[in-house]
Task: structure prediction
Amino acid sequence: SPRIQVQVKHRESSATVQEVRQLMGLLQKEGNVGIFVSTGGFTSDAKTTATSSHVHVELIDLPRFITLWQEFYNKLTDEDKSLLPLTPIFFLAKED
Result:
């Protein structure tokens, strides 16, 4: 405890309020957390429902997922890094 339940939708369309409510319905015990990852983002109703709910549901769209991946990538095991490998690319900047 707490139990974390994750739902992932990889598509272009936004996740709907009904989909967020379905995940919320699975969070029965006090303290359970839901994480909803949607590469297509979320409708405004879905965002409002998640933020105003008494249940903890974290919404993660594609830009936030990429930011989190970059932020925590160095802390992952080599096995986890192999699931979504990143290669740093450096650019030379002009001197001002």
